[in-house]
Amino acid sequence: MTAPTSARSVTVRAPAKINLVLGVGPVRDDGYHPLDTVYQAISLYDDITVSTAAGWSVGVEPIGDVDVSEVPLDETNIVVRAGVLLTEHHGIARRASIGISKGIPVAGGMAGGSADAAATLVALDRLWDLRTSDEDLLAIAAELGSDVPFALLGGTAHGTGRGELVESVGDAGTWWWVVVPNATGMSTPAVYAAFDDHGGGGSDSAAVLAALAGTDLDALTAGVRNDLQSVALELRADLRLTESDLVGAGARAALLSGSGPTFLGLVEDQDSAHEVREALLDAGHPGVLVATGPVAGAHVVQYA
Ligand code: ATP
């Protein structure tokens, strides 16, 4: 899509991410953990709409049942940090109002804030015709957070470093996921602190990368792994029920998303996805969603 130079607002859509493998190594001197992860972008989205304004402002509205009460509306929102970094990079003094339509569960381990940051970078770049190079956008994204570069890229990607070094990987499959959010969010730093106390981890992505290369659902089922899952389940015993309900309903694997508390059920196809979703809803888990991956990274959906 070519940008009309007179656009007054730009809307960019960015996906949630899941980690098919989240291999976590021992904490580094800089406080971050080295990751060996395979990201997949799935079909839950936030839309970000930007328009030029005298000062930075943030608005948020939910899509569906998403609880947006914990989303900050001041300059601590990551979308404002994204806007400030982009303007500093270009040495310009512009400001914008930023509207968030949120379909990605908040504090769910699906990197909704990171998706918003990536979408804001792309939206402001197009609104102001800044023509930021992909390389510079990825570098600004990495400064904002470890998951932000992947939200720009989308698809399926191998992530290393602290997760900010991303490389697309071949993934010809359409994978079906049942997404079970949880009303009580989890703090990512708290989960990593518990991980540091317990040790363990060190999973690698080789089996999942091979499963994706061969579009092999059995191999993917056997390979998915999250090194934070056992500590998250110790911190939040209630999540064990989510895990066992998913398996009981017929999911091939039950995987914690990122640092939780969202759980993901890997299922065979669309029919099984809807059956498992119904079973989870009947078992008393509200807001269960069906999603597929991989999907595209942050992309423009409207110029107005
Ligand atoms: P991660 O796994 O990257 O830590 P998450 O998916 O668990 O993230 P997010 O939804 O990204 O969680 O939000 C984490 C916290 O960040 C929220 O509790 C909220 O206070 C703050 N936050 C700042 N900006 C945003 C935003 N645009 N959307 C959601 N939360 C935001």
UniProtKB/TrEMBL annotation:
Coiled coil: none annotated. Residues 216-283 form the GHMP kinase C-terminal domain. Its EC number is 2.7.1.148. It catalyses: 4-CDP-2-C-methyl-D-erythritol + ATP = 4-CDP-2-C-methyl-D-erythritol 2-phosphate + ADP + H(+). It holds the Pfam family GHMP_kinases_N. Keywords: ATP-binding, Isoprene biosynthesis, Kinase, Nucleotide-binding, Transferase. Pathway: Isoprenoid biosynthesis; isopentenyl diphosphate biosynthesis via DXP pathway; isopentenyl diphosphate from 1-deoxy-D-xylulose 5-phosphate: step 3/6. The keyword Calcium does not apply. Residues 77-155 form the GHMP kinase N-terminal domain. It is an enzyme of class 2 (transferase). It comes from the Bacteria. This is 4-diphosphocytidyl-2-C-methyl-D-erythritol kinase. It comes from Nocardioides marmoriginsengisoli.
